[in-house]
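Chain A, query sequence.
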Amino acid sequence: MRYTLPNLVWAVKRDEKAANHGRDKNGYGGKVPTQYQMRYGSNKWRRVYAICYANNMTLYIIDNKQDLYLDVDTQNRLEAII
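Chain A, predicted structure.
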């Protein structure tokens, strides 16, 4: 399991236009797009996705075709912009 590095997160933002796909009729799924985006390691904005089953959720981004799970510091930055 690989995690993001907080020093490579250049910016985070909330995007109200998140797609509504990737989840089943109950709202669960393995690649649920969130309202958040972040710049990680480059100038490209990356969507933050969630793995959501039952009452638990794990946030991640896709970087170079690899899933990177958000570290605690980056998750706290996302929560601060709510």
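Strands lie at 9-14, 29-40, 45-53, 56-63, 66-69. The chain has one helix and five strands.
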